[in-house]
Structures are given as C-alpha cells and as structure tokens.
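Changelog entry: the VCBS repeat-containing protein record was regenerated in this release. Current contents:
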Amino acid sequence: MIKKLILLACISISSTACAEIDKNKITPTYSSENKTNRYFTEAIALEQQEQVKTLIYKKWYFEESLLKNGNPNKVVTSCNTLFNALDEGFNAFSYREQGVIKAMNKVCLIWSHMGELNASDASFLTDFEHGSALPKQMPPELALIISNDDERRLASASSWEEMSRVKEVQSLNKDQAIYYDNSGGIQKLTVMAKGDYNNDGIEDMVLYMDNSVEEGSYGSTYGYVVTRLAADAPYTLIKQF
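Regenerated structure tokens:
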C-alpha cells in the first residue's frame, strides 16, 4: 500500500521530487555478526546488497566432502556448490556430521535470503532490543521445539515466551543474545540483517537461531524473517527455514 501511494505521487509530481522520495528510503543494514568469519579467512563487513549476493559463490577457506552411495565423493567449496550437492542427494559421511552440514546449509540459506532485502519505505523495528520482553513479542515458532508435545503446543501458542518460559537473558551485543528457558533450553538469537523482504514497503528482519540444551548433545539452527506492522504490534513471522 505504501509503495502504491509513492507511485501515484510520482505520477503527479516532477522526477526531481521522486528522486527526493528515493533518498528517504531506508536502505538495508547487515549485522557484523554475519557468520562470515566461519567460512572465509576473515570476517566480511557487509554494506551493500551485491556484497551479500556474492557470498553464495565466494570460495570458503576450507573444503567439505559429501557422500552419495555409488557415486564419487563430491567436494564442496562454496554455498552454491553445497546447494547443488544437497539437491543431487549428497550428504555427510556420518550421522554425526550431518548436523554440521545442516548448520552450514542454514547459514548459506540465510545469506541467500539476506540478498533479497531491498530498501524500505517505513520501519517499526527501530526500538528492537534484546531482553526479557522480546520473547513475549516474538512469534512462537522461535521456541525450542524438540518433542511431539512441543509441536502440539506450538499449534495454539501465541508467543515465544508462552512456549519457552525464558528465565534469563545474556546480552552479547546489540544484535546478539543468549536466552535460557526453565527447561534447560539455550537459544542464541542473532539479528542478521534488516530490509524489505516481501516488497510491501515495510522493513523486515532476518534472524538466526542456534539451539542447544544444558548437559545434552542436542543442537539445531533455524532462520527466520519477521516484521512488525505497527509500533506497538507483536512481531509477525514471514518465513521460517
């Protein structure tokens, strides 16, 4: 709706005025906690959309070999080659290593979605802050889901807090914090980027969640795109992957 109004305005005013409207757009922003230090020789400061898009094809500082029965091992050296290998049915050598490959793939997917962010016309994310209030505002899909009972509760839950009952928050920086719940769950939430993901003119946010449990071997990673449609509204889930 916002973009339609801007288009109508541009029809009725000069091109110079339209250029001024473009200047008022909110450009995408990318966190320094972008996981690039895990894949390249040094962390990459991301400032523009094109830089993010190149991450998918940029060569890692290491190689990973994947296995598929009856086929030669496939060596992957970038997100793009990992995507292709997984699409062809290749996977990790062992069950234990599958978790590592899934986590690598998840980071690559998050970079891919970050590359789709465009400039926004409006934002209701400016007051975002990690803390004990955030789980009450975030959708329930951010909760740590391990059991079938968790899945059943998720169907009727209205927030992350309702699912997880966060008891402590350890803030690491403005983009990253660790959330501890009362059942032993540990969730490290990172804001990866902000920008307009679904082309509705409103700024959205790409999140990365790293899950684990106290005194256990469980681990999982998820990516989310969330938004806020009004200043006092809860966050709405756009995409989970």
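Residues 36-114 form one domain.
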